[in-house]
Amino acid sequence: MYGFDYQRPASRDAAKAAASGADARYLAGGQSLIQAMRLRLSQSERLVDLGGIADLKAIKVDANGVTVGAMATHASVAANADVRKAIPALAELAGGIGDPMVRNMGTIGGSIANADPAACYPAAVLGLNATIHTDRRTIAADAFFTGLYETALQPGELITAVSFPTAQKAAYEKYKQPASRFALVGVFVAQTAGGVRVAVTGAGQNGVFRHTAMEQALTANFSPAAIAGIVTPADGLNGDIHASAEYRAHLVGVMAKRAIARAF
User: Any idea where the domains of the chain sit in the sequence?
Assistant: First the structure.
C-alpha cells in the first residue's frame, strides 16, 4: 500500500474542504477501496473518511418511498423495520450482500460510487428507478451508471443519499459466486407506478443494465410465463473463469423468472 494522508471530518462542509486541492478520494465503508490500495491497484494522496458524518447515515421512510443516507450500511438497511415494510425487496437485497463483515462496514454510497459490475445495489437503483442525491445535484438512475466502474459523478462530488420510490411489486434474485458472494448474475424486477423495470447485474461487460425486452413483455403480463420465450443474447455479456457469457445469458432468464414469481 502506498502512503497517504488520512482525514475524518465531522461534517459535509469539512469533508468537501478536505477533498479539495489534493488528489483525494472519499472513503465510505472501505470494502473495495482499501483492498484495491493494499494490492496497489489504486492510489490517492488523501483519503477523506466519511464515517464521522452522522447525517449521512440516516434512513427515512415516508409515503413516497425510502431515502437511504450514503453512509448507511447494508446491515442497517436490511434490519430497518420501516424499509422492510415499505420496500421488502430492498431490505432483502441488502441482507444478502457479502458476509457479516461486509454488511456491517459496506455502505450504499460506496457501493454505487464504485459501480462494480457484479454488485447488488446498482440493480436496485436501476430497477426501482432511484434518484441519487449529491452535494451538487440529483441524478436519475438511468443516467448514473455510465460504464465499467464508471458513473456520472464528477471529481470531488459527494453522494449524500439515494431515494427509492415504493413499488407495487418487487424482488431480487441472484446466483452467487460462492467465495465472494458477488452476483454471477442478479436480476431486480419491479412493477411501479412508472411502469415495469428489470435490471441485471453481474452479467454485462459495461456493468448493470436494463433488460428492455423483458420490461415490455412484463408490462402486458407480469408473470414468469410472459418472458418464457425471451432469449438474452450472450453478445456483450461477461465471460470469465466463473461462468461463460452463454451461461450468464441463461442465468439472466432463470433469475428473472424467480424474481417475478417472488415479487411482493
Answer: 1-49, 169-262
